[in-house]
Design brief:
The protein is an alpha/beta fold. Helix content is 26%, strand content 34%. A hairpin with a 2-residue loop joins β28 and β29.
Length: 594
């Protein structure tokens, strides 16, 4: 029998005895008042002996915090926080820290109404994972990055002859120097030294020789130790054999050397140079002959690039000029315009390229800066004319003094490249064929007619990694019903606001090159890295994503939830002591003065 039952039984017996005593007493005056006083006194005794409580609805400010352990956390830091709620998404961490509960979805933390903020230890979470938290406030203090590559980028898609450029930053906290090496086919291609206790940029370059899918290596070496060994996947496509039409005012060395270089580089070339009025000399290299005396839309449509002297373009008759303009503006033909001494013209070909003359009479040879090429070229006599900087043009080549010597601009569907250079052949004569090739390859590439594509693929995931979701984006005018990645068939998701944009989500199962095939047969490739590749870069990316999440949700960081609860409150005994005292006092006074 428990205490409450004993107290109640005893108080009932006392009440019955007191009531019986009052009824058998000789003096029956004020009987009702004495009965009430006796019963009240017994009830007060019972209330004093019993643990009386009551419940009320209260609003409680709950500030409970959960710890989320991610890769890179320090085991010693866990003991600093007094919480029973410790979670992780990593199976290895859950084995290392037994009290960390393994969860598979961050939405589980959001579903726990008692968790009002999350403290993340380690490198943090990526953007996709953070979205599952749905704006739950986060506290994040990542550890400082000590050693390694902190940023990196390279051109993943190249044409044959293009240069691979691996650029980034490296933080060296060691007392010795670090050597960064770009390797291909087990051969060192380029290297750079990072001094001790310094963080600085690096730039490694090389011209790949093997076409197709290649995986280069970026190594960080300290003495005889290899600190990092990262994969650099690159796709090298064969250069497209462009069809080039050259319109020359008269034969000269510049045109001759350019024609020879185009033919040696595999271009299909047609050359028309004026002999006299309405008489032309015609050459066809790697190209079948056809009538070239009169220029028309059908003639221009055979070519990807037109290289022409400005003086020739000015002398085209009305029909030829109209056909050329239509082919450029509506069908995307590109023109490389070799300027003459004329500085001003109202022609649509020269309108975006106002020019000026140097103030000196006999300019000295200068080195040129070619877009995309490291270092300056050999000296060249660039002439007197240069182009003025314009907001709607892009500078392609400039001299060491900043004078623009080649620029390009959009012209409807096509592109115009304008240059006053007419002495580049002197590089070939002096043996600087690399500078000559770099200059003309750039000018032609910038002007060339854009090839029609069935779709454009973009890998939205920064570093596609094995067993992690990869997001691919396709831009296509034709709806692709199915996408096949290796042997997996996936239905793409169309963007509701941009109907030409499609998204594909894929979980890679193997490391290496993955094929992406559309329903029209178009084949693309992307590379999937192993879990050990680019750990530093992936950790820094997670830290950046988590910091951005914290910043975007800072407005709610101090808000706590209103938790509605039933609160149990003990009844104060003082009231029953007073009631007992009053009842006993009445019974004593009534018996004494009756």
């Amino acid at each position: 029998m428990n205490w409450n039952a004993i107290v109640i039984i005893i108080c009932i017996l006392i009440t019955a005895l007191a009531v019986w005593k009052e009824y058998v007493r000789a003096n029956q005056s004020r009987l009702v008042l004495r009965l009430l006083a006796s019963i009240t006194a017994t009830i007060a005794i019972a209330c004093i002996a019993l643990p009386l409580t009551y419940q009320v609805d209260v609003n409680k400010q709950d500030k409970r915090e959960a710890l989320l352990l991610t890769e890179g956390f320090s085991a010693d830091s866990v003991s600093k926080y007094n919480t029973e709620k410790i979670f992780t998404l990593n199976n290895t961490i859950s084995k290392k820290i037994p009290k960390a509960m393994l969860i598979y979805d961050l939405a589980d933390l959001k579903a726990d109404s008692t968790i009002t903020q999350i403290r993340i230890l380690g490198d943090g979470l990526d953007k996709e994972e953070l979205q599952r938290l749905d704006h739950v406030p986060v506290i994040f203090r990542p550890a400082a990055f000590k050693q390694g590559i902190t940023a990196v980028s390279w051109n993943e898609h190249l044409k044959a002859g293009d240069e691979i450029n691996v650029a980034g930053t490296y933080k060296n906290s060691l007392p010795g120097k670090i050597k960064l090496v770009l390797k291909g086919l087990s051969t060192g291609l380029d290297s750079v030294i990072i001094p001790p206790d310094e963080a600085g940029p690096f730039n490694l370059r090389s011209t790949p020789k093997n076409q197709g899918k290649n995986v280069y290596k970026l190594l960080a070496i300290a003495g005889t130790d290899t600190l990092e060994n990262e994969n650099i996947p690159v796709q090298i496509e064969p250069a497209k054999a462009l069809n080039v039409l050259m319109l020359i005012a008269s034969p000269d060395f510049e045109s001759r050397f350019l024609k020879n270089w185009l033919s040696e580089s595999g271009f299909a070339v047609a050359v028309r140079s004026a002999i006299s009025k309405d008489k032309f000399n015609k050459e066809f290299i790697n190209l079948d002959q056809f009538p070239l005396d009169h220029l028309s839309a059908s003639v221009f449509g055979k070519f990807d690039v037109l290289i022409a002297d400005l003086s020739v373009l000015k002398t085209l008759n009305g029909v030829e000029a109209a056909a050329l303009q239509q082919e450029v503006l509506q069908k995307g033909l590109g023109i490389v315009i070799r300027a003459d001494s004329s500085l001003k013209s109202n022609s649509w070909l020269q309108r975006d390229f106002p020019s000026d003359r140097l103030a000196v009479k006999d300019p000295a040879p200068v080195s040129l800066n070619i877009q995309g090429k490291t270092g300056n070229t050999a000296k060249l006599n660039a002439g007197m004319v240069y182009l003025a900087n314009q907001a709607n043009t892009q500078s392609l080549i400039s001299d060491e003094h900043g004078h623009v010597l080649a620029a390009n601009a959009l012209a409807g569907a096509g592109k115009l490249v304008f240059t006053p250079l007419n002495n580049t052949f002197s590089w070939v004569l002096s043996g600087d064929k690399a500078d000559y090739s770099a200059l003309w390859s750039l000018l032609i590439a910038k002007a060339a007619r854009k090839a029609a594509t069935t779709g454009s693929w973009t890998i939205k995931s920064v570093i596609p990694t094995l067993s992690n979701p990869v997001e691919l984006q396709l831009e296509s005018a034709v709806a692709p019903p199915l996408i096949q990645i290796d042997s997996t068939v996936i239905s793409p998701i169309q963007n509701s606001k941009l109907p030409f944009q499609w998204t594909v989500n894929y979980w890679p199962k193997t490391v290496g090159w993955q094929s992406v095939k559309q329903n029209n047969g178009a084949l693309n490739w992307f590379y999937v890295y192993s879990y050990d590749d680019w750990k530093n870069i992936r950790a820094l990316k997670k830290q950046a994503d988590t910091k951005a999440y914290v910043a975007n949700n800072a407005i709610n960081s101090n808000v706590t939830k209103q938790i509605h609860e039933k609160a149990t409150i003990a009844v104060s005994k003082i009231y029953f002591y007073v009631l007992l005292l009053m009842a006993c006092a009445f019974l004593w006074f009534e018996a004494r003065f009756r």
